Amino acid sequence: MPSTSPTLVNTANTALWDSNLIARYDLSGPRYTSYPTAPQFHNLISDSDIAAALARSDSTGKPLSIYCHIPFCDTVCYYCACNKVITADKRKSIPYLERLFKEMAMMASKIDRHRAVDQLHWGGGTPTYLSLEQMTALMRETRRYFNLHSDDSGEYALEIHPASVTPQTLKGLRDLGFNRLSIGIQDFDPQVQEAVNRFNSVEEVTRLIKQARDSAYHSISMDLIYGLPKQSLNSIAKTLAAVIKLSPDRLSVFNYAHMPHLFKVQKQIDEKALPSASEKLDMLHYIIERLRDEGYVYIGMDHFAKPGDELARAQADGKLHRNFQGYATHGHCDLLAFGVSAISQIDNLYLQNHKQLDHYYQALDQNLAPVAKGFAMSQDDHIRKAVIMGLICQFHIRFDAIEQAFGIDFKHYFEQALAQLAAMESDGLLTIDKQGIHVLAKGRLLIRRICMAFDAYIAPATKQSFSKII
């Protein structure tokens, strides 16, 4: 296990740990799944704004990404910060799917339905809360309204809770066209599982992985969380060893953010059982080292991938993107999102649906788009987004690329941001030369802090609650 010394020997495709710098820069900040971020969304988006954005989107002919939010879960996980509905009554999903189909039909009537869907993702909640029959119906309706690939070339993924599916269900989902899985492990330790009310055994997950590979899924991703109650460096090491043995193509290792004032369910967690801040850092330090030794590429923030995975290849090719599902390989797509709380990105617009089921239902029952709020990006937003996404995805940007794309003088336009970065350059987080900005190994773990220098909304957003950077 790693020591707590300030630095480690650097290697390619990973991050260099520096405890002193982490202590200095580990503030709260956005995760930049979008720019501007969701706290900036407002309710001043009009139907004409949406219609114009859809027309501009159609004129590009770009392929689409589709996201469906299934909010239901049988039981509650105490750490969860997702938009969810906890119910064991499976009948609750019937009226929801009826509205979801209607929302799809309404959107399909407003766009060119010949545009290919290169990416499809079901999230939640727990998408596999639905029966296989219901999931078949949802995929059928999606194909009815949108141009899904039939040759298995699209990136079609869904999130699963291991305890909610069987190997037979996974085979059925593969037959529907899904070719990627995101499996929420979180932790295998029984004491931790008891503390967060989330249960899945190594044996259950092993059976699912075998079935997924037998069914020729293209990629398997697993999620872990560090900082949960009852976790220790030893327990997280055991969980990680079991996960590595299962050999997922991708891993996401999330920092548990304890914010019970925002997420009431987290009040079920015993704060006295939470690991300390220093213990959490030791866990992350160990995870990074262990995955590096296993050959995983450090993609950024909390994502790791095998070198041959499409995520790692996209980063190497300069094509990595970031959206509301995290790092992604299809940044060229406009995103159509369906379901309660789902967020679309269409041309220059972000659109977020109502977060409450009754409001979502009411809008659709009145034949209205279930949009609660959104954001229309300005030219300045587009410029800053390009810089932030370049840094957070590729760890570097070229001044000339931004200047040619937007007709600006980078150093003049971002004079204040570059002044902020001067101290970070002195600390060895990055370098700034005539060509551009290059994030160094010490800065990779702190990439969110670096990106914040280019965020025009950070100053007025200081009262908003974000998770810690690390």
Give an account of the 3D structure.
This protein is an alpha/beta fold. The protein has helices at residues 19-25, 47-60, 93-108, 132-145, 167-176, 190-196, 202-214, 233-246, 277-293, 310-316, 357-365, 379-394, 399-406, 410-413, 415-426, 441-444, 447-452, and strands spanning 64-70, 72-73, 85-86, 116-124, 147-148, 155-160, 180-186, 219-226, 250-255, 297-300, 303-305, 321-323, 326-328, 334-338, 343-346, 349-353, 371-376, 396-398, 430-432, 436-439. The strands form five sheets. Strands 1, 4, 5, 6, 7, 8, 9, 10, 11 and 14 form a ten-stranded mixed sheet that branches. The chain has a three-stranded antiparallel sheet with strand order 15-16-17. Strand 19 and strand 20 form a beta hairpin. The longest helix has 17 residues, at 277-293. The protein is globular, with a radius of gyration of 22 Å.
- How many β-strand stretches? 20
Structural Rg: 22 Å
Main β-sheet: number of strands, strand sense, barrel status? 10 strands, mixed
- CATH overall fold name of the largest domain: Transcription Regulator spoIIAA
**Count of alpha/pi helices:** 17
The proportion of residues forming helix, as a percent range, comes to: 25-40%
CATH class of the largest domain: Alpha Beta
- Cα shape: globular
Q: Any low-confidence stretches, pLDDT <50, length ≥5?
A: 1-12
The portion of residues forming beta strands comes to: 15-25%
Summing up helix and strand content along with how strands pair, one would put the structural category as alpha/beta
